[in-house]
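Students often ask why inverse folding is considered easier than folding. One informal answer: many sequences map to the same fold, so there is more than one right answer. In these notes we will look at a single instance of the problem. The structure comes first.
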């Protein structure tokens, strides 16, 4: 459907009487008016009117690339004073808005010094990047970006838009409250938590209301997130208050079924956090009052201590997930005040029940997600052996109701035999550090990333279209830590020597985006230069943009996006080129109980290489209802 587009002043400006500006509509923003001096070509101005409020928004044009940017726009009121630890308050644009510079990041530790606090609490901002001026044609599809960082780190300004917007999409990175500011709570009425998720939902609503004025199509908004941001994207897309605004989801290296996607023991986590902040006494109302009396620095520094505690000793196993501290909590379905919650049921329950919108899902992983999370010597020392670490990792998996170990063991017996999971997780005594490291990366990547991704796609595909990709290009210049510094899953980069050849968590970000620090300053050392990297950037950015253009009709005509099927497990390999393949890690994921069927003839006997003879286990299978306590429960 063609939509009338709003007016953007570019080469010619008009002085508009206030009354005319107030009466303007998207297709009639300026009528009549007095011609004024021609503005600079890099000085775009958009006139908007939403909710009875009009505004003049001034942005910038990049003279080298032609990209238009509008930065540091508030989508919600400042979450300070009485708005601190409260739901976000939607903010309309009004008057003159200077959107020519990045806003501050939300309060967080400085990555190189965790006890130095950076950022500002008045940070509920977003940026808009568009490759062209609004006109009378159909608007461009919109990518709303939710950055990762374990709900503790990151900003909208880190992600340079040119690689993505050059493919004809509008890019809108958003910010949300981090750490305790955005996550502390127990799911109860007065301190439910999930304020960060509510910030995101408010930003999505704002984009839906305003994006047409910037040349975007509000009926084509794709929610894209990475790591914890991917978990949030899937949760938001399924939430009643946000689902009507979203037409597709991209979950990069994360999902709502991932370990630590939400707090398994919210009351315990809440007590731990409030005690750490010395605000544990009294009810939730008194806790909020106590927290509001704390300085920004006090709260962030206590969060740093909380993060350290959550990864201490054998809890080091949490470091293979993309989390860093407090996580979302399941809220009450009805708080008695008519306020909608966001996460009102466990994600696995919602997915099994089909309680999500009928929109496409693209879910992906990097080839070696946990490569930069693992220090073999540290693991051997802490867990008294790498085998114990792997078995502890298996306790994170969960996914009850999605897996069927007995069925898959019987199926795999016909293609070369299979190991029991506990046997597969054993590390032979004679292995060297390199062999151990490779095994740890493979097994933890399967358990924490690949298995949840496949199961998510499998569940989603029962009601809509779902697609899987595997990012497999190793960049010469950019790494995940350039964007995710401070996050435990990238903290061991370079520790084991062999990981320089692998593609870890976040390593794809510098190819989809230009790399900036949290303030928006380019990181010169991460500049993409080599021909191989440039090829991979072109392939990946166009792949994501192509998904942004997907709609109900085009999904049935595309030969790259082959919807998930348990038979064959089709997926897309992303490297210097895009390639379609089948049977994504069929043998390995079947060990964990993923209910898959191979498309082609293959043997899984290779899984026993180096571990002794392959053990067939038909007739000696642990029932699925006991798997959680035996294999997954440690």
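Output (designed amino acids):
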């Amino acid at each position: 459907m063609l939509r009338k587009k709003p007016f953007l002043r570019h080469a010619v400006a008009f002085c508009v009487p206030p009354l005319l500006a107030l009466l303007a509509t998207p297709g009639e923003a300026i009528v009549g008016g007095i011609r004024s001096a021609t503005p600079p070509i890099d000085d775009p101005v958009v006139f908007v009117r939403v909710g009875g409020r009009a505004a003049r928004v001034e942005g910038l044009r990049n003279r080298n690339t032609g990209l238009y940017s509008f930065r540091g726009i508030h989508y919600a009121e400042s979450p300070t004073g009485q708005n601190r630890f409260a739901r976000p308050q939607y903010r309309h644009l009004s008057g003159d808005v200077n959107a020519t510079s990045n806003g501050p990041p939300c309060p967080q530790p400085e990555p190189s010094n965790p006890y130095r606090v950076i950022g500002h609490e008045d940070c509920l901002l977003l940026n808009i990047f568009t490759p062209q001026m609004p006109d009378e044609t159909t608007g461009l599809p919109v990518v709303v970006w939710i950055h990762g960082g374990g709900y503790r780190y990151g900003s909208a300004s880190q992600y340079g838009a040119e690689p993505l917007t050059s493919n004809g999409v509008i890019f809108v990175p958003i910010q949300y409250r981090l750490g305790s500011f955005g996550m502390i709570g127990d799911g109860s009425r007065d301190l439910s938590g999930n304020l960060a998720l509510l910030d995101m939902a408010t930003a999505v609503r704002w984009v839906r209301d305003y994006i047409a004025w910037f040349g975007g199509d509000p009926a084509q908004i794709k929610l894209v997130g990475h790591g914890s941001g991917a978990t949030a994207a899937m949760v938001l897309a399924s939430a009643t208050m946000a689902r009507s605004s979203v037409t597709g989801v991209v979950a990069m290296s994360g999902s709502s079924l991932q370990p630590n996607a939400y707090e398994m023991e919210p009351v315990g986590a809440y007590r731990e956090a409030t005690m750490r902040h010395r605000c544990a006494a009294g009810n939730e109302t008194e806790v909020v009052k106590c927290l509001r009396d704390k300085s920004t620095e006090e709260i962030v520094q206590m969060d740093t201590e909380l993060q350290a505690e959550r990864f201490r000793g054998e809890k080091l196993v949490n470091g293979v997930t993309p989390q860093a501290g407090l996580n979302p909590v399941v809220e009450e379905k009805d708080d008695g005040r008519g306020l909608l919650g966001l996460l009102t049921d466990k994600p696995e329950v919602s997915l099994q029940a089909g309680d999500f919108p009928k929109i496409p899902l693209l879910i992906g992983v990097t080839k070696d997600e946990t490569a930069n999370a693992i220090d073999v010597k540290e693991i051997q020392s802490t867990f008294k052996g790498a085998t114990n670490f792997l078995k502890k990792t298996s306790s994170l998996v969960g996914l009850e109701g999605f897996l069927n170990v007995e069925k898959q063991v019987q199926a795999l017996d016909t293609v070369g035999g299979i190991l029991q999971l506990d046997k597969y997780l054993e590390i032979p005594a004679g292995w060297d550090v390199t062999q151990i490291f490779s095994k740890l990366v493979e097994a933890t990547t399967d358990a924490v990333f690949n298995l949840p991704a496949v199961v998510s796609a499998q569940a989603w595909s029962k009601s809509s279209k779902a697609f899987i990709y595997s990012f497999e290009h190793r960049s010469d210049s950019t790494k995940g830590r350039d964007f995710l510094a401070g996050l435990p899953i990238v903290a061991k980069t370079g520790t084991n020597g062999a990981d320089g050849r692998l593609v870890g968590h976040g390593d794809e970000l510098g190819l989809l985006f230009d790399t900036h620090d949290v303030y928006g300053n380019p990181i010169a050392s991460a500049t993409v230069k080599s021909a191989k990297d440039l090829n991979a950037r072109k392939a990946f950015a166009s792949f994501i943009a192509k998904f942004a253009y997907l709609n109900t009709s085009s999904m049935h005509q595309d030969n790259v996006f082959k919807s998930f099927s348990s038979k064959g497990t089709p997926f897309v390999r992303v490297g210097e080129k895009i390639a379609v393949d089948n049977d994504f890690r069929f043998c390995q994921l079947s060990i964990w109980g993923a209910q898959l069927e191979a498309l082609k003839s293959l043997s899984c006997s290779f899984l026993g290489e180096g571990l002794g003879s392959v053990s067939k286990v038909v007739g000696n299978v642990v029932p699925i209802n006991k798997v959680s306590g035996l294999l997954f429960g440690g």
